[in-house]
Amino acid sequence: MTLGQLLKHIDVISSGGQAKWFLQNNDVLVNGQSENRRGRKLYAGDQVELPNNEIWHLSSTAENS
């Protein structure tokens, strides 16, 4: 799963095309580091923190979505 796909899956954005804009205008952290690439691959155990301090931990099943 990519970061853009996750944002769409959890309803942060309504379409994949909005991912680039969202990531350019908001601080999103992946494993504690700022990330602005919508194509960033996410793996089991990764932690994604959104601007509203919402934190998502990816499980092994999320990779296969």
Automatic annotation (TrEMBL):
It comes from the Bacteria. The keyword RNA-binding applies. Keywords: RNA-binding. GO terms for molecular function: RNA binding. It holds the Pfam family S4_2. InterPro entries: RNA-bd_S4-rel_YaaA, S4_RNA-bd_sf. Signal peptide: none annotated. Coiled coil: none annotated. This is Uncharacterized protein.
